[in-house]
Design the sequence.
């Protein structure tokens, strides 16, 4: 059986675990010699944020799709949403019911689905994040098709700070001289 040595990598004020990095050094065999873990509160916040993003991702995808369908067809129908998102009709119906409960859409039987103000704001925000992530991925050399596919996942998990960094990078990338 392999033993593992744990040690604190940083000193912090008494009673505080903020910013503490715990280093795990396997004595032999598996893993990196200097694997690091963030302090528990920081790591817990990161995982919590990722879980919330996963939960919001579906709502964002649906509101974005509804906005696109309304822009092109004048309405969004459950059948069209299901086909475009690659889900079964009952799955789309269940998610649309959730969108209604969350106050993001309105719908009447045998009529289209329409975004509320909150739904339109969510769709706009998701669309802007999507376009920014695609632009960044293309700027760093990803083929457009791959960038579009990858952006579908990345757009939901990227923080506001990282989005600002993406924007700054893209602004500065246009100002750089080949070198």
Sequence:
């Amino acid at each position: 059986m392999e033993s593992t040595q744990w040690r604190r990598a940083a000193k912090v004020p008494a009673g505080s675990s903020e910013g503490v990095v715990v280093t795990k050094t396997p004595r032999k065999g598996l893993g990196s010699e200097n694997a690091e873990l963030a302090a528990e509160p920081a790591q817990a916040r990161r995982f919590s944020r990722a879980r919330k993003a996963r939960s919001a991702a579906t709502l964002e995808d649906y509101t974005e799709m509804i906005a696109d369908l309304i822009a092109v067809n004048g309405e969004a129908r459950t059948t069209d949403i299901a086909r475009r998102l690659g889900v079964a009709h009952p799955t789309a119906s269940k998610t649309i019911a959730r969108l209604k409960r969350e106050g993001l859409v309105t719908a009447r039987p045998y009529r289209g689905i329409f975004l509320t103000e909150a739904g339109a704001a969510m769709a706009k925000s998701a669309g802007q994040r999507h376009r920014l992530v695609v632009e960044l991925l293309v700027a760093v050399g990803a083929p457009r098709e791959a960038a579009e596919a990858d952006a579908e996942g990345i757009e939901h998990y990227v923080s506001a700070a990282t989005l600002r960094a993406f924007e700054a990078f893209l602004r500065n990338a246009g100002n750089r001289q080949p070198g």
Q: What stands out?
A: The first helix runs from residue 40 to 73. The first strand starts at residue 4 and ends at 8. Residues 1-18 have pLDDT under 50 and may be disordered. The helical segments are 40-73, 78-85, 89-101, 117-139, 144-154, 160-173.
